[in-house]
Amino acid sequence: xxxxxxxxxxxxxxxxxxxxxxxxxxxxxxxxxxxxxxxxxxxxxxxxxxxxxxxxxxxxxxxxxxxxxxxxxxxxxxxxxxxxxxxxxxxxxxxxxxxxxxxxxxxxxxxxxxxxxxxxxxxxxxxxxxxxxxxxxxxxxxxxxxxxxxxxxxxxxxxxxxxxxxxxxxxxxxxxxxxxxxxxxxxxxxxxxxxxxxxxxxxxxxxxxxxxxxxxxxxxxxxxxxxxxxxxxxxxxxxxxxxxxxxxxxxxxxxxxxxxxxxxxxxxxxxxxxxxxxxxxxxxxxxxxxxxxxxxxxxxxxxxxxxxxxxxxxxxxxxxxxxxxxxxxxxxxxxxxxxxxxxxxxxxxxxxxxxxxxxxxxxxxxxxxxxxxxxxxxxxx
Length: 381
Description:
With 381 residues, the protein is an alpha/beta fold. It has one domain (28-378): Aldolase class I (TIM Barrel, Alpha-Beta Barrel). 33% of the residues lie in helices and 15% in strands. The chain is built from 13 helices and 12 strands. The protein has helices at 12-16, 51-61, 93-108, 155-174, 189-194, 209-212, 214-227, 253-266, 290-298, 312-316, 330-338, 349-353, 357-363, and strands at residues 23-25, 28-30, 34-36, 67-74, 113-118, 137-138, 151-152, 180-186, 233-241, 270-274, 301-305, 344-347. The strands form 3 sheets. It has an 8-stranded parallel β-barrel, surrounded by 5 helices. Strands 1-2 form a two-stranded antiparallel sheet. A two-stranded parallel ribbon has the order 6-7. Helix 2 packs parallel to helix 3 (93-108), helix 4 runs parallel beside helix 7 and helix 8 crosses helix 9.
């Protein structure tokens, strides 16, 4: 990656400029390194995002956010949507028209936007389903605690879901999105195949890491065939599974490579390494974060995420004499960005509460930053 200023170490205002440098990844050209993290909003009745959803994303896109990743959008499969009464999809003409408006509006203000495509799998059981809904499916019918909650997927269902992801990817391309993100994290369906606790299959989709990653690889390959070679595919992965925060997808870098390298080969352009704290080492014996290991293993561009902007010492970095080693601080973030540990920085709750968060960081208007509060979850600021 080429930075225009590679030796900016003397002053916080110079260092923070790293976040606002443009970046070109293939045909994806971003105005800054700041990404809006995907966060479920639940303001799309019957799967249809309205004008207020477009306004919500535009307010971030026009304030120095280089890339918007939308809340999860369910693929066209009858068991995909965890909350069909409120969460979006591409399944109806009205939903597609709603998303087209969202995309057009974000582009109008100069932003870039991609949808996060999802199948909830067994996590669908966490939300009450309408009467007569089809049973939830997952690799082995097991939830994150190893308890039976749904039905194990048949080979035919696996093929149907793989095709549904490809269909959704093509739909996203046709609607004008700038790429897609596949949600392979946090205990949803793709992640349920990756994690041995929820994947107890004895066929070619279970057992070894190579077998457990097969489902995800087939989805990436199918999406790549659907959208062609130049449409960006982002893959989000995590160690933790909601609400089992101590879960491990990989116990060392070698195991992580067994997961990520086949996905990179299959066609992933960017990895989105989801952790709860971006600065924490992924494995013992190395200071590298999960994002850092993803970049080291695959050579692909990587997004880091996890509590960016939520700690007080994040903005203390701008004060004279601020320590350069405060965990979670701006100095730690920019130092790792400058050293190419990752390429992009996703911001979640801080942007949820304050649509001007990035602009205020850019301008040094730190006294105007709005702290995250629980009520932000229930509103479209």
